[in-house]
Amino acid sequence: MNDRTAPQSPWQALRRLTPARIALGHAGGSLPTAAQLDFQFAHAQARDAVHAALDLPPLTEAVRALGLEPLCLHSAAADRQLYLQRPDLGRRLDPASAELLAGHSATEGYDLVVVIADGLSALAVQRHALPMLERIAEQARAEGWRLAPVCLVEQGRVAIADEIGERLNARMSVILLGERPGLSSPDSLGLYFTYAPRVGRHDAQRNCISNVRLEGLSYALAAHRLGHLMREACRRQLSGVKLKDEAEVPSLEGGTGAGNFLLG
Fold this sequence. Notes:
It is a single chain. This protein is an alpha/beta fold. The protein has one domain (55-245): Ethanolamine ammonia-lyase light chain (EutC) (Rossmann fold, 3-Layer(aba) Sandwich). It is built from 7 helices and 8 strands, in the order ααβααβαβαβββαββ. The protein has helices at 33-51, 56-65, 80-85, 95-102, 122-143, 160-167, 219-236, and strands at 70-74, 110-119, 150-154, 170-178, 189-195, 206-212, 249-250, 256-257. Strands 1-3-2-4-5-6 form a 6-stranded mixed beta sheet, with helices on both faces. It has a two-stranded antiparallel ribbon with strand order 7-8. It is globular, with a radius of gyration of 21 Å. The model is unreliable at 252-264 (pLDDT under 50).
């Protein structure tokens, strides 16, 4: 049975409302050829995103063009294979990077350090990190916060921002990195915010804003939520599960609404 004679699912109209793989139909006991090929293509995109290398030179120049100082660092994972096999190595800096940071630590400290790491999708970083960085820098300047050099990390995981923040004596850290690719989102960027970063922090002590991409959470809304979290963290001196995202979200009409769109 070919695709032209494959029965159509009565849920077919719902497909235009979601990227999820629903109402694919069937050809006998199997998926139609087009749906199977689409799945294989999405799977290949996700694998490519995981294994792609972060292109540092243009990213470094783009950061410098924003008037910010970039620092190129590397985790203790020497290559991509080791990074995927040993998550613990992706959470710590290699000796050369630790030494480089020692020369940039400020006695009076910084208010905020922004870290950009490849994570599990360098594609997400190449596409979305710069627009987010620009908005975060604008917020920091508006608040009068002192920004540390922007740290660009190869083979980095979320917790590497804890060591960077501690070594730079930063009051807050936010890391932008590629999230684990899904079959409909190979380029999703995640933001992880920590107050008083230091080695040994755990996930319950940080806040996450995920799915930042053109088809997901917009740059403006992600920056709005992050700004609220950072201001509240400074006021309450904490982050994580005790710090809720209660930011009022600007509506299309120019007003504000509840942070959770499911709540009226």
